[in-house]
């Protein structure tokens, strides 16, 4: 069995009689990035859920950090972070307090930057003392991305991190992904953002999923 951070071999997914992901493969070495691209409904989120181990493939294999993805999800959870939907959050903790919580939870392993620096570089410092329900949709997404990348995990799974972000914040999101790669982390991201696709294509494969057939 491969020890690569991500090794997806001919994986497909069928719900009932409908195949929503045609066989796809991708292998990532440590520190590589990969973009998963394709039209709406092509199966990008499905592929990411299979890698995250939250769903099982209909055929093929998904190996993550040397283990079947569903086992890796539990046994290697400290090494894997995912943003595949809304960020679970505490209604009574501020933006800054959420990052502080992540920092404390991974104390001793957290490489920084500190909370205020992390918020400032994402231009989220102006909302540092607001609660999740008080954020705009773009602020919510940026907060989710920053909090996700704040986990010192070696494998990062992102589903359209650019969603709801304006052009300026899309650029910040790309910068944060590049930094994660520069830190030696492995990043697998579904995206509709050509800029993010290019950034990831510089660091590894592009997985092109075809138009859904139904
Ligand atoms: N639980 C489910 N039951 C049946 N069909 C599903 C289920 N989940 C997803 N699908 C279908 O699977 C297909 C792929 O969905 P998926 O969310 O993976 O696409 P996507 O490429 O991420 O799309 P988008 O770019 O719109 O986010 C879609 O046609 C969707 O309707």
TrEMBL record:
Record-level Gene Ontology MF annotations: ATP binding
Cited PROSITE patterns: ABC_TRANSPORTER_2 (PS50893)
UniProt keyword terms in alphabetical order: ATP-binding, Nucleotide-binding, Transport
Pfam families recorded: ABC_tran (PF00005)
Top-rank lineage group of the source organism: Bacteria
ABC transporter domain: residues covered: 6-213
Annotated PANTHER family: ABC TRANSPORTER ATP-BINDING PROTEIN ALBC-RELATED (PTHR42939)
Protein name: ATP-binding cassette domain-containing protein
Taxonomic path: Bacteria, Bacillati, Actinomycetota, Actinomycetes, Micrococcales
């Amino acid at each position: 069995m491969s020890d690569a951070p991500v090794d997806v071999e001919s994986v497909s997914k069928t719900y009932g009689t409908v195949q929503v992901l045609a066989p796809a493969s991708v292998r990532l070495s440590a520190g590589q990035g990969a973009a998963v691209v394709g039209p709406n409904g092509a199966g990008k989120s499905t592929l990411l859920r299979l890698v995250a181990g939250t769903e099982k493939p209909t055929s093929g294999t998904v190996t993550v950090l040397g283990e079947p993805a569903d086992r890796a999800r539990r046994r290697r959870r400290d090494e894997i972070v995912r943003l595949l939907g809304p960020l679970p959050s505490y209604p009574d903790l501020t933006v800054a307090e959420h990052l502080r919580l992540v920092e404390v939870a991974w104390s001793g392993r957290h490489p920084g930057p500190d909370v205020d620096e992390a918020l400032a570089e994402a231009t989220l410092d102006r909302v540092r003392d607001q609660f999740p329900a008080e954020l705009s949709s773009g602020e919510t997404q940026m907060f989710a991305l920053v909090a996700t990348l704040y986990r010192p995990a070696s494998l990062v799974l992102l589903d359209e991190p650019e969603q709801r972000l304006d052009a300026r914040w899309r650029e910040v999101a790309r910068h944060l992904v590049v930094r994660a790669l520069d830190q030696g982390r492995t990043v697998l991201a579904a995206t509709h953002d050509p800029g993010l696709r290019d950034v990831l294509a510089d660091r590894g494969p592009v997985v092109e999923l075809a138009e859904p057939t139904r």
